[in-house]
């Protein structure tokens, strides 16, 4: 009886691991970063696009920070289930736009993490000032 229960537990554990491995990253929902910013993403539509909102905790402005709209797209899900994506955020409290690109990763426990890079472009008064407009 001890051997049967041990095998049953092992089988259940293996099935549980298989289910986590079969899961794929899902961008929909609330995401928070280590700086305290958060974003909410809608479900993907049939073409892989999504929308949402971004509330930054980090900004160089004297103006009130507002929740900002975002628009994005995700690659069509492949067999690996760790898709790449991109989105832009238009900051209504600043004269700038940020483009983010990244990939969603899922660890063995099923925890999803977004790894991203970004470029921010702010408005400048003339073309001669363009060198200082992108970070």
UniProtKB/TrEMBL annotation:
Q: Which cysteines are joined by disulfide bonds?
A: 25-104
Under the heading SUPFAM superfamilies, the entry gives: Avidin/streptavidin (SSF50876)
User: Where in the cell is the protein located?
Assistant: Secreted
GO molecular function ontology, one term from the record? biotin binding
Q: What is any one of the record's Gene Ontology cellular component terms?
A: extracellular region
Please name the Pfam families in this protein's record: Avidin (PF01382)
User: What span is annotated as the signal peptide, if there is one?
Assistant: 1-22
Q: Which InterPro entries match?
A: Avidin, Avidin-like_sf, Avidin/str, Avidin/Streptavidin-rel
Q: Which UniProt keywords apply?
A: Biotin, Disulfide bond, Glycoprotein, Secreted, Signal
Q: Which family does it belong to?
A: Belongs to the avidin/streptavidin family.
**According to its UniProt entry, what is the function of this protein?**
Forms a strong non-covalent specific complex with biotin.
Q: How does it assemble?
A: Homotetramer.
Instruction: Identify this protein by name.
Output: Avidin
């Amino acid at each position: 009886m001890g051997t049967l229960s041990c095998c049953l537990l092992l089988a259940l554990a293996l099935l549980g691991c298989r289910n986590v491995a079969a899961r794929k990253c899902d961008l929909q929902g609330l995401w928070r970063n280590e700086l305290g910013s958060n974003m909410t993403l809608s479900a993907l539509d049939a073409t892989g696009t999504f929308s949402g909102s971004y509330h930054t905790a980090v900004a160089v402005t004297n103006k009130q920070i507002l929740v900002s709209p975002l628009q994005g797209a995700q690659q069509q899900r492949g067999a690996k289930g760790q898709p790449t994506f991109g989105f832009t955020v238009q900051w209504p409290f600043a004269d700038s736009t940020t483009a983010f690109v990244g990939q969603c990763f899922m660890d063995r426990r099923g925890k999803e993490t977004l790894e991203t890079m970004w470029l921010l472009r702010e408005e400048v008064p003339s073309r001669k000032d363009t060198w200082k407009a992108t970070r």
